[in-house]
Amino acid sequence: MASDRPRHFSMIRGFHLADFFTLANAGCGVGAIFCAMNYAAGGSVVQFHVATVLIVGALVFDVFDGRIARWRQKHSALGRELDSLADVISFGVAPAALAFAAGMRGGWDWVVLVYFVCCGVSRLARFNVTAADLSDTAGKVAYFEGTPIPTSVVLVLVLDFIAWKWGFASGLPGGAWTFGPWQLHPLVLLFALSGTLMISKTLRIPKL
User: Fold this and answer.
1) Distance between alpha carbon 27 and the CA centroid of its chain, in Å?
2) Helix (H, G, I), strand (E, B), or coil: what is residue 6?
3) Which of 6, 116, 168, 185 is the most exposed place for a label (fewest CB within 10 A)?
4) The whole model's pTM is what?
């Protein structure tokens, strides 16, 4: 008598080559967060630079996982979910952690950085549910609605340049403003802008 139980989903058998590149993306993001925490705890600025390199490495893996999937014509729901989760870590949480490590620790900074990460999460969720509608006959998405979350690498490079050129010992460029009980560093507004562009409905970015 055949069993009515659904077949067990094997995660290992469900993995494709591209998925391992996606996991490498996530690994780089986690490593970057650890480096940011070390730097915030009083570590060397080298930790900050290593975190930047890891996030750039995550971007490289993110580019290659998509190309490998298209080359091998191996797409799966598991791979799509893995990609979104890895991107949240590497291009959402990791840049926010670096910003905090750099000195954006005022109350309003926290609000902006949380907003930035939430925008990234929302951006990825929207892409997942609309990708089928935006795809062409070959299954490729023609354009992004809002800026892709990996564009946050630009913010990371800006912070790393400041760390290399001046360091953060004397504070962040632009100083700090006080509104009510909390401080806000003007530099954190770049994260607010990045998050807002991610969730934009009217901004369309061609997908290369």
Assistant:
1) 12
2) coil
3) 6
4) 0.87
Please answer whether residues 160 and 45 qualify as being in contact, where contact means their C-beta atoms are separated by less than 8 angstroms.
no
Tokens 């995660």 belong to which residue? 11
Closest by alpha carbon to 109, among 198, 193, 183, 190? 183
Residue with tokens 């080298």: 46
Under 8 Å between Cβ of 150 and 76: no
Instruction: Please say whether the beta carbons of 195 and 119 come within 8 A.
Output: yes
Q: Which residues neighbour 66 within 8 Å (Cβ) at sequence distance 6 or greater?
A: 18, 83
3-state secondary structure 151-196: HHHHHHHHHHHHHHHCCCCCCCCCCCEEECCEEECHHHHHHHHHHH
- Cα gap 94→58, rounded to integer Å: 11
Q: What is the bridge-based pairing of β-strands 204-206 and 143-145?
A: antiparallel
**Could you read off the pLDDT tens digit of each residue along the chain, which spans 208 residues?**
455 566 555 555 556 667 888 899 999 999 999 999 999 999 899 999 999 999 999 999 998 876 775 655 556 667 678 888 999 999 999 999 999 999 999 999 999 999 999 999 999 998 888 766 665 555 566 677 889 999 999 999 999 999 999 999 889 999 999 999 999 999 999 999 999 999 998 888 777 6
The CA angle 99-193-106, to the nearest 5 degrees, is 40
